[in-house]
Amino acid sequence: MTYRPADLAELREAMVQSAAVGQLLAVSGAGTASQWGGRPEHDAVLDTTAMSELISYNPTDMTVAVQAGMRLSRLQEVLAEHRQWVALDPARGATIGGIVATADAGPSRHQYGGSRDSVIGMTLVLADGTVARSGGHVIKNVAGYDLGKLLHGSLGTLAVVAEVVLRVHPRPAATATLAVPCDAAAAFDLGGQLITTALEPAAVEWCDGTLLARFDGTARGVADRLARARELAGPAATEGTPEQWRGVDRIVLGEQGDTVLRLGTAPDRTPSLAADLHRLAATYAVEAAMTSTLFAGVHTVRLRGGPAAAHAAVVTALRQTYPASTVCRWTPDLEHEITPWGDPPPAVSLLRAVKRRFDPDDRLCPGRFAPWL
Amino acid sequence: MTSHAIDTGWLAELLATLGPDNVITDPARLRTYECDGLTGYRVVPAAVALPRSTAEVAAAVRVCAGHGIPFVARGAGTGLSGGALPVADGIVISLQRLRRIIEVDPVNLCAVVEPGVTNLDISRAAAPYGLYYAPNPSSQQVCTIGGNVAENSGGAHCLKYGFTVNHVLEAEVVLADGTVTTLGGPAQYQPGFDLLGAFIGSEGTLGIVTRITVRLLAKPAHVETMVADFATVAGAGDAVTAIVAAGIVPAAIEMLDNLAIQAVGASTHSVYTADTAAALVVELDGPPDDVAEQFDHVQRICRAQGSTKIMVAADPAERALIWQGRKAAFAAVGRISSNYFVQDGVVPRGRLAEVLDRIGAMADTAGLRVANVFHAGDGNLHPLVLYCEADGEHDRAERLSSEIAELCVELGGSLSGEHGIGTDKACSMPRMFGEDDLATMLRLRAAFDPDGLCNPGKVFPTPRLCGERPGPYRPHPLEAAGVIERL
Ligand SMILES: Cc1cc2nc3c(=O)[nH]c(=O)nc-3n(C[C@H](O)[C@H](O)[C@H](O)COP(=O)(O)OP(=O)(O)OC[C@H]3O[C@@H](n4cnc5c(N)ncnc54)[C@H](O)[C@@H]3O)c2cc1C
Ligand SMILES: Cc1cc2nc3c(=O)[nH]c(=O)nc-3n(C[C@H](O)[C@H](O)[C@H](O)COP(=O)(O)OP(=O)(O)OC[C@H]3O[C@@H](n4cnc5c(N)ncnc54)[C@H](O)[C@@H]3O)c2cc1C
Predict the structure, then answer these.
(1) Are the CB atoms for B273 and B307 separated by under 8 Å?
(2) CB atoms within 10 A of CB B477
(3) Which of B151, B205, B373 to mutate to test the pocket of ligand 2 (most atoms within 8 A of CB)?
(4) Distance to chain B for A71, nearest Cα, Å
(5) What is the largest CA-CA distance in chain A?
(6) Which of A168, B180, B382, B424 has the greatest number of C-beta atoms within 10 Å?
(7) What's the CA gap between A181 and A194, in Å, rounded?
(8) Which pTM value belongs to this model?
(9) pLDDT band (50, 70, 90) for residue A320
(10) Cβ contacts of B375 on chain A, cutoff 8 Å
């Protein structure tokens, strides 16, 4: 069975009803990240995609309030009419709620941070139907706890995100990309130079053997910075293309049959992670691709080809050195070989304590964080 | 509440654990800790612990946990909302001795520091690498990074650069039962809920932070600063809106109204025009070409919005004078009025002109003066309600100050932009949040601190607290001494 509420009141009603009969719920947005982590056990689906309205938008305040089921692409269209955007990279089908719940973000996280940094207010509904708001409609606000942050990365296990208030940014007048084919170590060095020479790149990504650095700003300023960046980078540098940026999406999303792994490391571990991945891929005869938001230390690894056992061997070996990892896409049968998560973080007992207080009956997406929760 | 004074077992244990040199019990010395920057509330604690390491913080907390003794973390005590106010029969755990900068890591663009390190010292340590720590409350010379984490502090530049929460990667935390854990990690992706994000800004109620990894940024290549005068406050407010609507994100936009400008003019070598209704300080930073073009644009916008005069800082010395005047405004107001309250509300930026108008009308009705000096780009007001204690204006002024905070909420804003809720505004929280909102926040608190020993009575309204009345504004001793300024 599926609950498909269209507004906050209906969502609350669905939570109360399902609680009354003790149903386990799988919370879902557009379903583009439905494989992240473990597969939730459930009696019913709580589908948020009918909650897709713009609640309020005042361009001069640069804040916008939306229902959580609204697609990011739709929101960006609305904002573009006023030459504004939410500083999150295109995720064609994904909902705002899903983006928050997965803590997903693309290359722009270098300058703007993840969705945690754009969300300034949130309304959530707990498993027992309690409706809670935190934050608000203003950027500057330090009143009370920031429950919106808590929901970030919670994958539907703590509460359902019902409404989100986001901070928006002006769209830059101009943008340009530096592209340099190089290995991860060279990319990390050059990226560091771009930053410390105050060229202010808005994104510094190393994607599948190419450093991509994006500059946003005024037309003259961007041209000047791109020229100076090319000087630093040497003769191999070219002006990057939108197609090169789409390479990031292709790795992040993967395709049927791929395994996709998200990892977090200290930024300077990127070269060794890339080298280890390369070596392991050769050993187990799988095809590997990787994209890294270099100075955020966030990496996505895509494995393709070969049996599930080979994918499992690569993931397991990587995790020994880089434990903060989530399986985001599973090649068939992989779930019989490995767990969705690496070693639990030091604060895992706090994660459990928070979960118990928010969802004592373990009704929301049970199994998503298995074996931690 | 039963007094713990009869049960001295815990004190003996604390003394044995930390050593007598690291525990204050002398009543005279305890009074140093009886309040923070909000001097209207005072409570003398039963003891003060001065641990020198995470292990000692944890040991002190374990003693408290074992005996049910409440504890309050304290950094530099500059908080303006009574967050570090002690609990009678409880202890204060001062983090002042944990002040090592453990590492500056220019490769990973971060620094690892202990909580007692001052905000400014982080930027000083990063400077040789061309880096700095962005969030800069005006108390930055003395306030600690631990206090910043607890308050989610910001400063004049947070319009562009964000707050503490946007610049902290990892924190080691001592929980209420004395266990030590780590929130966050070295990367912007960590599996699981964002407990670090929820901890930052929790005002010391979820645990004590004992080690912090902060992000560092490259110093901007170029800075430009100007002062634009306006014939009306509403005109200045509209200019703020127009600048932002033009797609420009300045490093700072600050506003002073005429009363504030007069106060500044009366006391310092002022660069502000004495008879203008309002002045905007606008600062841009970034790559030179981008800054030059946008700075030009901002000046055109100000003129189009009716600016009567624009003064551009010709050099760093003139920039310093502009900021000096801005920062001196609070102290200056203190010289034109014997007493005043400082408020810290926020409104949506588009409603600035409206709220200033309404504050003006409310002040007239109350027969009091209100000076405005504030972070206009964020919509973060700091109305100063001037009054005279001796003339019996206290209650009227206090009421006006609360009404202004609640007006901010009514206009869709917030009770606090940067100073936190603490003891001061806990009783106004129900104006902004419903019962269920607060109850949900308390679930988080209960997950971290089931027995409620960690800075109890702060942030959330309690019947006892809300029966008491706050005292008047008095300058922080460091402010009076000219060491720090209010911004
Ligand atoms: C660079 C980059 C490019 C990307 N490009 C694309 C793209 O082109 N197309 C695309 O589809 N995706 C893309 N993504 C991925 C996309 O960002 C994620 O798939 C998205 O976060 C998931 O949103 P969803 O609505 O599909 O969530 P779902 O897959 O429906 O749900 C994911 C998780 O979130 C939980 N959840 C969802 N909604 C809520 C809610 N309201 N409250 C509580 N929990 C909730 C679910 O329980 C589940 O655990 C990209 C990501 C990156 C980093
Ligand atoms: C003149 C003046 C100007 C100011 N300007 C600004 C400004 O521009 N922006 C701004 O945001 N604030 C400003 N403030 C307020 C204050 O300086 C900040 O809130 C600061 O972050 C407090 O730091 P502190 O070390 O003094 O903390 P304290 O006052 O000692 O404590 C503040 C709170 O933090 C908790 N705490 C302290 N250390 C820890 C720790 N290690 N772990 C857990 N909790 C802890 C305390 O329990 C308390 O709740 C100003 C204050 C003054 C006096």
Answers:
(1) no
(2) 12
(3) B151
(4) 22
(5) 67
(6) B424
(7) 16
(8) 0.95
(9) very high
(10) 140
